[in-house]
């Protein structure tokens, strides 16, 4: 039974005492652990009776190192790869649907499958993470239920005979389940890693780069060898085989008691008025509006402008996804050592230069692939700066819930995933004054407006740097 706030304070005191007495198996608690202790008086962590005067003390695994921490990170990498692997394979599926009956007759609606899938995955993040931070004891059943829903959505899509069936199964049911399965691990990384938090998130998110590089190739091969139904059934089984062995390792560092009915945590929303949050979030939203344009249109650019072969058409997109693997780890490491605003400023400058100089002047495959790799490293890894942004916001408001903050930042990327497609299509269809000029190189093609749009929106990522320079936050 819980002894109230005084008991928790005593436990914390005993914890700090034992931590100073060369008890090497103990590690300082993270912010989330302190929230668990203070806000959830009825969530009993593990204690031992070996403290001074018979007092109980914490016995927690170490942060930033140890078997449990690395197993959690491995599980996070696999979940990232599986969940986002399907989403990043939407280009292959879209090409299959538009060229195969019974879906080919409704080409105008096929694009909604991918848009809905990406949009739901991104926009579900604040909702899912809110419930997980409000009721943390539901994480295990939430993940298992999410895996079941994702598998059901994929299996059900194999029986689709109309495009709206695909929108419902792959565009709505699958991402709802996938978000429930995936997002708990983002909260747990925050608990298990303190000094290496940015690097840990970067390594986990690199799984999406691996998925974006490998899964489209596997999916294209499977669809060419087998039927759509067999491919979807195989992918459903593959999800279960890949995910289930790692789910036991995806757990919080602070044990959550189940012996009493847990009370929901009270979450603070004061951070929504924080200048740091407002500036960083605004920059993230504006930057994301053009962020997806290269991944959507580099294959088409390769075919129509460069005149690449079938292999060459996919080379820039593969290069971009491979670049994100490097970028997530590299930018995550920088975030641990530099202020988030400085990291974002450096990556923004590199992105803008890459778009305007390399992509804008590319009319052959090698420089286009160079641009794709650079874009993947510095722009594709933008989410690796989010742990640093959360740290800045928490410096001003210690009550800011990290999981919910991460969810809102993720949702800002979802806004871009929804609006980028229609805006990009309209820009390509627009006749620009400089179009048709051979000297204009990439700018002289139908993609000139899209290139300018991508570079301009990317520059808004530097709003965080400007906000810090003007003294809006430290």
From TrEMBL:
SUPFAM superfamilies xref list: MFS general substrate transporter (SSF103473)
* Cellular compartments per GO CC: membrane
InterPro entries assigned:
MFS (IPR011701), MFS_trans_sf (IPR036259), Proton-linked_MCT (IPR050327)
Establish whether keyword Nucleotidyltransferase is in the entry: no
Q: Name one GO molecular function term.
A: transmembrane transporter activity
Compartment annotation? Membrane
Instruction: Indicate whether NAD appears among the record's keywords.
Output: no
Task: Enumerate the Pfam families for this protein.
Answer: MFS_1
Q: State which residue ranges cross the membrane.
A: 69-92, 112-132, 144-166, 172-189, 198-218, 230-250, 271-293, 313-333, 340-359, 365-390, 402-427, 447-466
Which keywords annotate this record?
Answer: Membrane, Transmembrane, Transmembrane helix
Q: How does it sit in the membrane?
A: Multi-pass membrane protein
Source domain of life: Eukaryota
Q: Enumerate the PANTHER family for this protein.
A: MFS MONOCARBOXYLATE TRANSPORTER (PTHR11360:SF287), MONOCARBOXYLATE TRANSPORTER (PTHR11360)
To which protein family does this belong?
Belongs to the major facilitator superfamily. Monocarboxylate porter (TC 2.A.1.13) family.
Q: What is this protein called?
A: Major facilitator superfamily (MFS) profile domain-containing protein
Which species?
Answer: Penicillium salamii
The lineage, from the top, is:
Eukaryota, Fungi, Dikarya, Ascomycota, Pezizomycotina
